[in-house]
Amino acid sequence: MLSAIESVKGHKYPAKAHAENVVRHLQSKISSEEADKSAVFISGEDLELYQYCDQTKPVRQNRYFFYLTGCDIPGSHVLYQANKKQLTLYLPDIDYDDVMWSGLPLSLADAGEKYDVDQVKYASELKDDLARLKGYSILTTDINQFNSKYQEFLKAGDENLFYALDESRMIKDWYEIELMKHAAKITDKCHLAVMSALPIETNETHIHAEFMYHAIRQGSKHQSYDPICCSGPSCSTLHYVKNDDEIDEKKRSILIDAGAEWQCYASDVTRCFPINGDWSKEHLDIYNLVLKMQQETMKLIKPGALWDDIHLHAHKVMVEGFINLGIFKKGYSVQEIFENKVSARFFPHGLGHLLGMDTHDVGGHPDYNDPDPLLKYLRLRRPLQENMVLTDEPGVYFSPFLLEDVLKDESKMKYINKDVLDKYWYIGGVRIEDDLLITKTGFTNLTSITSDPNEISKIVKAGLAKGKDGFHNVI
Ligand SMILES: [Mn+2]
């Protein structure tokens, strides 16, 4: 089988097809005459200096711009004229003073070879080209520091444009899927490395470092998001990024949620493991329950299924599991506890979200004002479609902060055995997260790092057996 990178060799990032997708979605909202008189214009991110300093801030390419070009050169712009199906990439004008420091930029001819566009020009031609489109609606997402000098030609904030861009981005084509498979593959290896390196991981920072080291070595210089590296009770903080606590055996549990990025496409994977290789009873109880939540929800994943329903099913599996463990009292039915939302603060986030260029990708239609605490934070509120990529990431947490209200609420506490609950706080939490591609009949799991607790235990122990001297560790 070809590796992800070989499989796209000889092909360009399909920018023209993406632009056509956007216009097709636009046409579902406006008349074809209006569509014919429309153009789409997006400015990419540019280099910016820190105040009082000659160093530049890190640049993260504008995702809408990248979708229409595949180009990550700062200071570029793209214009698509719908009726001519003409896609033009504008590169920044050459700054001859900068060539000494930065080397020669890509030439127009080389850029024409590299990118799937009809023409490549310098940005100095842009104003005249926009002026020539008099009578056209030149749509853009917003006015910002990178496009404000073209403001007089642009129509910003058009709802239909956002709709068209987001609907297009939500469904991945074969090329995007190959990039995401590669990001997932890099991430698998990073997680394996982290699980295997306990002898040199005596602080959460070391877990963070181990992951990034292996990502960069595989060519992924950027993370999809800040890695979340937790141990013990900090595993209950969903987006914990302090990553600086000591790891000692008393804590027992590690949770790492991290994903490498490949050519602007994300991966997003969470794994948990026991610090000394042996699962404590309570840690394994919760681990197996979260694994069951993931396995049970995976059975329901296929085009047409509503993500709300699958998410709520995960809550029911959790409630049943808590009854079996004695955390919830046995005298009540799963349905009653579920309906009283007692599980909300133990599994406070959504079961998963769309994944693409953004980690929480566009098109999910979340409703953060939903009064239902079980659905409020669900980032995907629509039926599944073929070639969506999403995460399946159930979690169970014991967060003193989140559960403070529950502990004071008689109507909820009547379902909870406090004595049993008290045995679980030290774990913090468990989350298992894989990246799934929706297929015609179900899904393909892009994540292949094991989530089997016995396998994980073996990997951790094999790492521990190597001892500190078994690692190249200069610090
Ligand atoms: Mn996620």
Automatic annotation (TrEMBL):
Keywords: Hydrolase, Manganese, Metal-binding. InterPro entries: Aminopep_P_N (IPR007865), Creatin/AminoP/Spt16_N (IPR029149), Creatinase/aminopeptidase-like (IPR036005), Pept_M24 (IPR000994), X-Pro_dipept-like (IPR052433). GO terms for biological process: proteolysis. GO terms for molecular function: manganese ion binding; metalloaminopeptidase activity. Its cofactor is Mn(2+). Signal peptide: none annotated. It holds the Pfam family Peptidase_M24. Residues 13-150 form the Aminopeptidase P N-terminal domain. Belongs to the peptidase M24B family. This is Aminopeptidase P N-terminal domain-containing protein.
